[in-house]
Amino acid sequence: xxIPLTVLPRCTLSTNTLVIDGPRQSCIDxxxxxxxxxxxxxxxxxxxxxxxVDVGAGTYRVTVTDEKGCS
Length: 71
What we know:
Blueprint: E1 17-21, E2 32-37, E3 41-44, E4 52-55, E5 62-65
Antiparallel strand pairs: 1-2, 2-4, 3-5
């Protein structure tokens, strides 16, 4: 018996960059804009799927996926 096998190209995600627009140190309730670039889709720990988010103090994660589906 033969089982069909599809070999997908190895994922190599290009280097992504985060751009922070706003003060690096700020007062309580201040917001900064963080923009992830070089991707097709974005999934932030805030729940946003936009390329940029406006956030206050805290720790945030983003998963960036390119046009080949690599993340």
